[in-house]
Write a structure and sequence with these properties.
With 429 residues, this protein is α+β, with helices and mostly antiparallel strands. It is built from 17 helices and 17 strands.
C-alpha cells in the first residue's frame, strides 16, 4: 500500500515550526491586548453568499465551496473580514462604537500551490469599526509595525495607496462598477496594460487614460513629494484629489509617532478584494516577493450585510508568511528558556514515585517528562541529552529513604542530592 501524503496545497508543521507559529500568534494576541482589541472566534464554514458578496472575482473563483448534507451552498472562509462584518451587522449591531475586534485562525483558498503559497494558511486579523477618522487608519499601520518589531523582523516596509484615487477617476468617467472591479484586480496583479485596455473599452476619455498611465509610475518613500505629485496628476477629479489628501493626513499621523515606520506610497497600488474604499496597505520585508499581510478601509461592507452604515478599517497578517520571513532573516525567538526535565526511575518499582515527582515539577510550571520505555539510567540520560533537556531527576531507592533524589544538570554535567521539597527551587534557581 502506498504511503499517505498531505492533500495538495496543505502541509504539516513539525515541532520547531509549530513553536514558531504559536510564538507569532502569541505576539499577535499581545498586540491586540495592547491596542484594546477583543478576541472573537468565527466558524471556518460560512454561507457561500456571505463570503462571495464582495470578495472579488479572483477569490470567488478559488473558494472551497460545496453543498452541505442539508443542500445549502457553503464555503471555507477565504478571509476574515466578511465573517466579522456579519457579526457586526447582526449580534453587535447595537454595541457602542468604535468596536475593536481581533481573530486568529486558518483560511482556505484553492490557489495553485507554489513556493510560499499554500491552500491552507493562517492569519491574525484586526478590525476597527465605527470611525471615519484618519487616526483609525493610522492605528492599523502602527499596530502592524508593532507586531513586526515584536517578532524581531528587520527592515519591514509598508506599501500604501488609496483605492479612492483610482475609483474617484473611474467614477467621474462613468466607468461601471463591474468594470472598475476588474480593473482593480488587474492592477493588483500589476497587469497595467490590460487594466488600461479595459478602461478604454469602458468609454473613458483620453485624459483619463493619460492620467492613469502617469499615476502607475508614481511611487516612492519621500511621502510629501510623492503625494504632491499625485495631487497634481489627478487635478480635476475631485474625489481622487480628496483621496490623496486623506492619505496624506493618515501618513502624517502615522509618521508623527516616535516609532520609525518605513512607508512607500504607490499611486497605482490596488487590492483584489472589492470591498475596499480608502487607504490600503501591505507590509513586506525586502528580498521576499510576498506581502506579510494586507488591509485597508472598507466603509460599506457592514451595510451590505444588512447592518447600520458603519465605517471600518482593518488588516490581516499572514502568520505563516511572517514565519517564513523570520526563517530567512534567521530571527531568534525571544522566549524565556524553559527548564525541561527528564525524570528517570532507577527501578520498575519506583515508577509511581517518578510520576509523583514529575507532577510536583509540572505544578510549579516546569515541563517534565517521565522515562516510560524502561531504559537503563545511562541510556535514559543519553536520550535526555539528545533531546536537549536541561536537567534529569534520578529517582533511586537509597535517596528516597532520605526523601531525596539526584538532580543532574545536563549542561554542566554536575549532579547533587536534593531533598524532594527543594527540587523546584534547585531547578528554577
Amino acid at each position: 500500500m502506498s504511503a499517505f501524503r498531505t492533500v495538495r496545497g496543505m502541509r504539516d508543521f513539525l515541532p520547531e515550526e509549530a513553536k514558531m507559529m504559536k510564538y507569532i500568534e502569541g505576539k499577535a494576541r499581545k498586540v491586540a491586548e495592547l491596542y484594546g482589541y477583543k478576541e472573537i472566534m468565527t466558524p471556518v464554514v460560512e454561507s457561500y453568499e456571505l463570503l462571495a458578496a464582495k470578495a472579488g472575482e479572483d477569490i470567488r473563483s478559488r473558494m472551497y465551496a460545496f453543498n452541505d448534507l442539508g443542500g445549502r451552498k457553503v464555503a471555507l472562509r477565504p478571509e476574515f473580514t466578511a465573517p466579522v462584518a456579519r457579526l457586526v451587522a447582526t449580534t453587535f449591531r447595537n454595541e457602542p462604537k468604535p468596536l475593536r475586534l481581533f481573530c486568529v485562525g486558518s483560511l482556505y483558498r484553492y490557489d495553485e500551490p507554489q513556493k510560499e503559497r499554500f491552500r491552507e494558511f493562517w492569519q491574525s486579523n484586526y478590525e476597527l469599526m465605527g470611525s471615519t477618522k484618519p487616526e483609525a487608519d493610522a492605528e492599523i499601520i502602527m499596530l502592524t509595525n508593532n507586531l513586526m518589531k515584536s517578532v524581531g523582523l528587520k527592515n519591514c516596509v509598508f506599501k500604501v495607496g488609496h483605492v479612492g484615487v483610482l475609483r474617484g477617476i473611474l467614477s467621474q468617467e462613468n466607468v461601471k462598477e463591474k468594470v472598475q472591479n476588474k480593473v482593480m484586480q488587474l492592477m493588483d496583479k500589476k497587469q497595467y496594460e490590460d487594466a488600461l485596455k479595459l478602461v478604454e473599452d469602458g468609454g473613458a476619455s483620453e485624459k483619463c487614460l493619460a492620467t492613469l498611465q502617469k499615476l502607475v509610475k508614481i511611487k516612492g518613500s519621500e511621502i510629501s513629494q510623492v503625494l504632491r505629485k499625485m495631487e497634481r496628476q489627478v487635478e480635476g477629479y475631485n474625489k481622487a484629489v480628496n483621496a490623496v489628501r486623506n492619505l496624506h493626513e493618515i501618513l502624517e499621523l502615522a509618521s508623527e509617532t516616535e516609532e520609525k515606520i518605513d512607508l512607500v506610497v504607490e499611486a497605482g497600488f490596488a487590492r483584489g478584494l472589492e470591498y475596499y474604499t480608502g487607504m490600503i496597505l501591505e507590509p513586506y520585508v525586502p528580498k521576499t516577493d510576498i506581502a506579510l499581510g494586507g488591509g485597508g478601509r472598507y466603509d460599506k461592507l457592514i451595510e451590505l450585510f444588512g447592518g447600520k452604515p458603519t465605517p471600518a478599517v482593518g488588516i490581516a497578517h499572514g502568520i505563516d508568511r511572517i514565519m517564513l520571513a523570520m526563517q530567512k532573516q534567521k530571527t531568534p525567538l525571544k522566549t524565556e528558556e524553559e527548564k525541561r526535565v527528564m525524570v528517570i526511575p532507577t527501578k520498575e518499582e519506583l515508577k509511581g514515585e517518578a510520576l509523583k515527582i514529575s507532577q510536583i515539577l509540572r505544578d510549579a510550571d516546569i515541563p517534565a517528562e517521565v522515562e516510560v520505555v524502561g531504559r537503563r539510567v545511562t541510556k535514559a540520560l543519553e536520550d535526555a541529552n539528545r533531546r536537549r533537556m536541561n536537567y534529569a531527576v534520578i529517582v533511586g531507592e537509597r535517596e528516597l529513604k532520605e526523601r531525596a533524589v539526584v538532580v543532574r544538570n545536563l549542561g554542566k554535567r554536575e549532579q547533587t542530592i536534593v531533598k524532594i521539597e527543594r527540587i523546584v527551587e534547585t531547578i528554577k534557581g
